[in-house]
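2024-03-11 09:14:02 INFO receiving multi-entity request
2024-03-11 09:14:02 INFO entity count = two
2024-03-11 09:14:03 INFO echoing inputs for audit
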Amino acid sequence: MRDATGAVQSVLVLGANSDIASAFLAALADQRLSRAVLAVREPSAAADQVLALGELGVDARAVAYDATNVADHDRVLADAGDVDVVVVAFGVLGDPYDLSLSTEAVAELGAVNYVGGVAAAHASARHLVDQGHGSLVVLSSVAGARVRADNAVYGSTKAGLDGFVQGLSDAVHGTGVHVMIVRPGFVASKMTLGMEPAPFATTPDEVAADMVSGLAKGKAVVWSPAVLQAVFAGLKPLPAPLWRRLGR
Amino acid sequence: MPDAAGPRATKQQLLSGWGRATRSRAEVVVVSSKDDAHRTVSGAASVLARGLGRSYGDQATNAGGLVADLTGLDRPVGAVSASGRVTVPGGLSLDALLAQIVPQGWFVPVSPGTRYVTVGGAIAADIHGKNHHRDGAFCQHVESLELVIGDGSTLRCSPKENADVFWATAGGMGLTGVVVEARLMLKPIATSKLAVTTTRFVELDPLLEAMVRADAQAPTSVAWVDLMRSRSTRSVLTTGRFAEVAELPDAQQEDPLAYTPSQRVASPTRVPNGLLRSSTVRAFNEAWFRAAPKHRADELQTIARYYHPLDGVKNWNRLYGPQGFLQWQMVVPDNALGTLRTCIAELSAAPTPCFLAVLKRLGAANPAPLSFPLQGWTLAADMPAQARGLAPLLDRLDALVAEAGGRIYLAKDARLSPDMVPIMYPRLDEWRQVRAVVDPNNVFSSDLDRRLRLTC
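2024-03-11 09:21:47 INFO inference complete, emitting structure
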């Protein structure tokens, strides 16, 4: 159970091998985390993570999970049982967008990030409402706040997922379940390896720390770093010609 | 009698403790007869009795399960026997009980800082009051009780009959069953007024010495300590005893047992986070200290003013805003005065706003495995749940308290590490064994139970 200071004891992470998810798990293990279920495509790939959490005193295990397999969401949730927090952390960045991308690649990105993300968030929210408590954390991105040309597919999947979760948050209002959207900026991680850092670049550890404090405070939206909220408030109404130039 | 086959009114409700820092949803069933209690427990997969919700954390919440609201089980009590015995329903509040017994010349054997607790809750937490050093905890004044156990049947228990279940229920946080009735042993009083002596201290040591002296001299004592100053610890000690008729002013002597407690003000329903911050708490503490006399002996005070000062403000817990607050209450044995000093110093030095810290002497422990009190010092402090650095600070203090042979009060806790429980309550296993007999299918559960892993 989550305690009064906001520390949680159990967590299910869908897409647990991302750098942000790993950092988040480590930050929770620093508090009261005692049980973690790591849902990943290939459980053997999470063996090191499970081991590391075990050394921190967390009863951790990895389970196979494919976000594009509709049956997997409910199966993994039922298997995890009562948990204080579910994190929807999976997502694929894909190649920089241009018209030469294959139609299959574009559809695949939409299937994982948006269709998978919406299904996972929906199933997770129902699971939490049934158990009578808990927080749902969904990893969105500033890329969805205003979609750029070079990440048009990725940005649009995050915009769509973000919009769904805003509605979901209102739908579960009053049930005791808390929904939190996380919008990180450019995160230096294996997902962005080799890319030129954007302004206000951050690290997985910093995003994880913002997630932990957002959870404790019961925030609905966490921008990481926080300054990006103001930055995007300025960028969103920018005229298209200016925006296009910025995006280059 | 309600229709045994009739439907029970249930509704999904979001519940929290008095601190309002965590909440969970449960199906709430209003219990207004013993029969209701039997039917609610029979066949339930997960159920918990709840009274007036004055425990601070997740003691009376049960996520996804059933919560039996016992406050409907509150019929008036019958006559008090010549020896002070009275049979009371489990859902009756001490507020209602006092209104019925004070005019007859009786007082509850133990009174907590609020009269808005039920008798069942008082037993489940084995509450203590300002008289613990002399009279012990609440359950030491319970002659017997009726408990609805896991299979829905009723078990009578007392210190003589099913004694292990009786003591497991005392301080058992509602996890042994539902207390539907109890027979209490009351205290006779000649008047409804207390003769109260108040003394202010500007240093800690003279206070501690005065409190040890007060053990022998006064039936009740309590000190309010200002934890907002790191240089010296100032405090206000009050000791009291029920006054004799001759001590009352002439006008009051005609009706020495008159009892009319009233709530004076209500706190606003919507308060922003951070109203009670260091600056405002410091100002409040200053005002409170200044309002107390340097020394005043035998001032007459009402029961409500002396025992239940915070009941004067309805829903004062809301003053902390939606993020809520928690109360950290520890006890350390007499020989751990150093630990007490360290805790006071650490809390005073921390930026955490500590509102109204209370220091008290406690007497000997009773036979209940999960009862909180033990011979020594207890310190309780309220703080905003989201105060910066609070979690690591309290973890550090918990470790010091455990090392000194002390413990944290389960009825107040909202953040203790489950690893600390078997250390602070070394008889936990003994309690678990008794509990397993009366509730083999783990029907009784609570969020506290799950958080602290009490039953398993």
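2024-03-11 09:21:48 INFO post-check: The mean pLDDT of chain A is 95.
2024-03-11 09:21:48 INFO post-check: The longest strand of chain A covers residues 177-184.
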